Amino acid sequence: MSVDVQSIRRLFPALHQEVNGKPLIYFDNAATTQKPLSVMEALQTYYKQDNANIHRGAHTLADRATIQFEAVRESIRGFLGAKESAEIIFTKGTTEGINLVAKTFGKKFIAKGDEILISTMEHHSNIVPWQMLCEETGASLKIIPITTEGELIWEEFERLLSAKTKLVSIVHASNALGTINPVKRIIAAAHEVGAKVLLDGAQATSHLEVDVLDLDCDFLVFSAHKLYGPTSLGVLYGKRNLLEQMPPFLGGGEMIREVSFEKTTYNDIPFKFEAGTPGIAEVISFGPALDFINGLGKKSIMAHEIELLTYAAQHLQHIKGITLVGTAAEKVSVLSFTVEGMHPFDVGQLLDAKGIAVRTGHHCTQPLMKRLGIEGTVRASFAVYNTKAEIDVFAEGVAQLARLKNR
Amino acid sequence: MNSILDIQEEIVSEFEILGDDKESTIFYIMELGNSLDPFPEEERKEENIIKGCQSKVWLTAQFIEGKCHFSADSNTDITKGLISLLIRVYNRRSPEEILGNELTFLQRIGMGNILGSQRSNGLASMIQQMKRYALAFKTKQLSTHGNEGI
């Protein structure tokens, strides 16, 4: 079913403004999406009438806040197809989710001589925590190479996978290139050698159907703000048997069962990993964001976005001086490119002057840029509220800039 | 030679002609970069880099007959244009002139709004580095004179 973009756009106040005297064209959705009114209203309603600290409150407001908070945990469970809501842990974002796993799963299950497998196209947040863990434990980090098009080299992955591999931590969809990795196959192959798999779902979760039971991933992390939700909120899904064996991440309130100066016992999951007061308002306002996605259906969202991606790629590839970066067969709606003779930063700034918001630079994937032999790219990324008319303006703008240096 | 103050006035009036169209202002800045003297290849090395998040700047300075001589380059056209403005103001000035005059033209042009915060921070680092050179030359000059006095 196709989506009704014009009525969707009406739900997003931020889209209706001028930037530098031009109508805003927001193509930086892989960095963060704009938020629908329902999310803002939920934030406001919470603070206006329900604000209270959750769990263990003996009063009505605390109870209301707790019920709404836990209802969103249940919505996320359904969204991911997880078995139980106790496997849904709230974090600050994808980065914290990965660090949590590195510090806890890593501490318990990874030792000297073990190997952790990641790929060349990882975001820094799926590189650095593992480097830190390797430094602490003496484990080593192995990198799955990619092709020039931006796809994993399967044979190399199989070659690197061994009984030494304890964890494969891989991006589901690349933030810099858009490549969708064959994660189901990766997970099956990793499980065969006894390795666990963490999926970095920061980019994929808003576009692709993600069913954690069907995929059989051990961990999945993502951020709410890339799914039309609030900032500073993320989700870590983990299988119960692993989460139970892992030591806590942070110590403090909420995560304990009993504290004495002699010994403290820890709470059950998910609370064991949720020390301190969480982002209650953020969690509660993420509910309507999920409703928004579920209401449209990911299939329809993806179909619209891929139509935009294909349309934009067709326009750009014919412009003299433009090189598309990342041309994998399976992609989410990320279009990375370079303009001959122009630094991506300059391109971004000139597009901004035309009211067009894109991201430029290495996209926190410096090793990937090095592999591709470039300093950075200009990245346009599309969401469900973007239109072909916006791509027309964007493509014309890019063509005009490319002509400056490529007559 | 016009004073630092005069040059700043000149630049401000040149930008006033452009009005408040951001795009043509950026194009103008990019064009200004073409006026920079070619940067010596051998100076394009790590120790001469002022690193921003996205753009790189190479800056060298020499002290000749009491004046600071700057040479610079960047890997982005907009940054090159910005450097050319700084060089236009600071080149062939004594350390005292550089250290004793505040740069007001950037604020008066509204460069912060044109560039955004990332590049504005980079620009501030460039100015700081040029002033550091000026201070180093001044210190060196003083100590040399001091020695002569002994």
Number of strands of chain B: 3
Greatest chain-chain interface? A-B, 16 and 16 residues
SSE class of chain A: alpha/beta
What's the multimeric state? heterodimer
List the strand order in the largest sheet of chain A.
Answer: 4-10-9-8-7-5-6
- Most strands sheet of chain A: 7 strands, mixed
Overall 3D shape of chain A: globular
Largest sheet of chain B: 3 strands, antiparallel
Describe this entry's structure for a reader:
The complex is a heterodimer of chains A (407) and B (150). Chain A has 407 residues and is of the alpha/beta class. Chain A has helices at 5-9, 37-50, 60-80, 94-109, 128-137, 154-160, 183-192, 212-215, 240-245, 280-296, 298-317, 344-353, 366-372, 388-405; strands at 18-19, 22-23, 25-26, 88-91, 115-119, 140-144, 165-171, 196-200, 219-223, 234-238, 256-259, 264-266, 322-325, 334-339, 356-357, 359-361, 377-381. In chain A, the strands form 5 sheets. In chain A, strands 4-10-9-8-7-5-6 form a 7-stranded mixed beta sheet, with helices on both faces. A 4-stranded antiparallel beta sheet of chain A has the order 13-14-17-16, covered by helices on one side. In chain A, strands 1-2 form a two-stranded antiparallel ribbon. In chain A, strand 5, helix 5 (128-137) and strand 6 (140-144) form a beta-alpha-beta unit. In chain A, helix 4 packs parallel to helix 5. Chain B has 150 residues and is α+β, with helices and mostly antiparallel strands. In chain B, helix 1 (4-17) runs antiparallel to helix 3 (77-90), helix 2 packs across helix 3 and helix 3 (77-90) packs across helix 6. Chain B starts with a helix and ends with a helix. The interface between A and B is medium-sized, with 16 and 16 residues.
Note the topology:
The complex is a heterodimer of chains A (about 400) and B (about 150).
Chain A: H1 5-9, E1 18-19, E2 22-23, E3 25-26, H2 37-50, H3 60-80, E4 88-91, H4 94-109, E5 115-119, H5 128-137, E6 140-144, H6 154-160, E7 165-171, H7 183-192, E8 196-200, H8 212-215, E9 219-223, E10 234-238, H9 240-245, E11 256-259, E12 264-266, H10 280-296, H11 298-317, E13 322-325, E14 334-339, H12 344-353, E15 356-357, E16 359-361, H13 366-372, E17 377-381, H14 388-405
Parallel strand pairs in A: 3-15, 5-6, 5-7, 7-8, 8-9
Antiparallel strand pairs in A: 1-2, 4-10, 9-10, 11-12, 13-14, 14-17, 16-17
Chain B: H1 4-17, H2 22-32, E1 49-51, E2 56-64, E3 67-74, H3 77-90, H4 95-100, H5 105-109, H6 111-149
Antiparallel strand pairs in B: 1-2, 2-3
Helix pairs in contact in B: 1-3, 2-3, 3-6
